[in-house]
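User: Is it possible to get a 3D structure for a protein together with its bound compound? The compound here is iron/sulfur cluster. I've pasted both below.
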Amino acid sequence: MSLLISETFTSLQGEGKLTGVPTWFVRLSGCNLRCTWCDTPYASWDPEGPVRTVAEIVREAVSHREASGVRHAVLTGGEPMLPPAIVPLSRALRDEGFHITIETAGTIVRPVACDLMSLSPKLANSTPIGDPRDPSGAWASRHEQRRLNAQSLRILWHGSPEFARTTDRQCKFVVKGEDDLPEIESVLALLDEGRTDDERTPPSDILLMPEGTTEPTPGARDTVQRICMRTGFRYCTRLHIHLYGDTRGT
Ligand code: SF4
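Assistant: Yes, that's possible. Here is the predicted structure of the complex:
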């Protein structure tokens, strides 16, 4: 089986619970959404890259691990859950002993092997209304219909009879302002619908990140840190932006 691959690279994980951990990344190209602030448009708005087989990608990961000792793998995108070949890819990497993080918007479920499920549900602030790349508005309307799929989010987050809950999980939101908080709370209510108090998502699994592909402005930082102090959610930095700027392959 094969996949469209935008890039593979090694860097320090820049976001989330594993921030700072040396990691091998594989970025799948192609996405079913079109966030207006997407920081990887070469894997969404203009998907690029060669088609590569699962076996080839796994060989590269293993040979890189032998040279560097890096045992964490991140499958990201684009939307990595879009191509069915994510399933054999994730399972083959797991069989090779990698710790696997999957970074997904949570609109599609596939029976992947995964250790850290990293969901990033897209809020209304992502919809490309008036975006010059979408003159007819067709993507804005598709994006709006697809961006929150309650059933997929719940399965990826809590597991189901067909999909084992992952060992660890995090749910990241890109925040533009205080106005985003009611929608974040409604997404969390969707995630936890029908759950007992013990099963509910702890605030420490919720990460808020200021929107942007550069260092956040003091105003954006203050807004997110204020929300975190009030709610108990985690403030999520972008270490790769801090270290390397908005540079591909980091
Ligand atoms: S879901 Fe991710 S890859 Fe797809 S458009 Fe949004 S930010 Fe970009």
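Residues 31, 33-35, 38, 40, 43-44, 77-79, 105, 122 surround iron/sulfur cluster (CB under 6 Å). The domain at 2-174 is CATH 3.20.20.70 (TIM Barrel).
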